[in-house]
Amino acid sequence: MKVRLFKPCVGEEELAQIKEVFDISWLGMGGKVPEFENKWKAFIGATAAMGVNSATAALQLAIGAFGFPKGKKVLVPAQTFVSTALAPLHNGLDVKFVDADEETLGMSVEDLERKYDEECVAVMPVHFGGHPVKMDAVVEFANAKGLKVIEDCAHTQGGEYQGKKLGTFGDVGCFSFEEKKGMTTGDGGMLVSDDEALVERLRPTRWLGIDKDTWKRSAGYTQTGEQDAYHWYYEIDHAGFKFNMNNLAAAIGLAQMEKLDWMNERKARAIGRYMEGLSDVEEARPIVPFDLDGYSSYWIFGLRVPKRDELILHLKAKEIATSVHYTPLPMHPLFKDHKEPCPVAEKAYGEMVTLPLFPEISDEEIDYVVEHVRTFYGK
Ligand SMILES: Cc1ncc(COP(=O)(O)O)c(C=O)c1O
Questions:
Q1: Domains in the chain and their CATH numbers?
Q2: Which of 4-8, 123-127, 144-148, 214-218 has the lowest mean pLDDT?
Q3: Whether the predicted model's global pTM rises above the 0.85 cut
Q4: Is the CB of 185 under 6 A from ligand 1?
Q5: Which of 41, 78, 182, 261 is deepest in the core (most CB within 10 A)?
């Protein structure tokens, strides 16, 4: 048996949505984008949402929205994907790395308090693997210090903390719909906020700085019988980015949203089966303390284990795909000048392994992976 690590759950529903886009022959930014934005903001419970072409773009726009003075610092977890740290760097800011919480591998609130200094202007918690960061504590600390909070929700699409959707605790929440994520649009992302004015300010920035997008200009002129010889006219008052979501991606997103609850439920069930199958393997500690009561949206299932590299090779021999998420950012050459100690993230890095998880993973596939982890540890 061959077991994949990730597998997007796409089929007839997505094809039907894509067909609608083909039928009107409008593949770029168009009417499906606001439709998807409205559906997403209702699901998440935010006042405003803006579709972009990745979470990387959403994070960059979110940090840029506050106009922080160049050279200030943003508190970023050591245990994350590089996009979190690129957002400050591309905005002329520096990063200050915060260590992981030993139990959850999310941002450690104690280390956040230690690493903070007066040059810090924002904090970017990442719900690692889909496990919620203690957002009440982070927001309380951020408010006390005047820090903006940008939640990186790339690993969760609908997960909750204390009954409230992740992405709604901070000033801005940023989601990923990249192909391996809990829900996909191929590539794509969404920025949400309760600050509607902030999101409206960013709309032209995602579209090169142009104040009226092509869809709006054309829809007004061609579909409403409007008489305006200057319907094509637009202005640019700042240097924006080509970060927009397109109609094809939004169409896929609309279809994916219809099955999102089901996909999240399926993953929770799969994680439960893994945990049960491995419960007596002392060496196999779940990578995060998976909490499957209530609404969860986990992205990965993984373990923290001794002899991690040997386990990876053992599973490879059985055609089971694995990975490691992630090398802590301070260990990359890009951050060689950042000497902040992050011992928890570095220790966990040597023990982590990501195992197959996706909504349509079968019981047989899970049991096959479990069996080979068990035999590796002599069970
Ligand atoms: C924590 C985190 N933030 C941001 C991103 C970037 O997402 P995207 O690929 O949509 O730009 C990722 C992607 O893996 C991620 O893991």
A1: 12-258 (3.40.640.10), 260-376 (3.90.1150.10)
A2: 214-218
A3: yes
A4: no
A5: 78
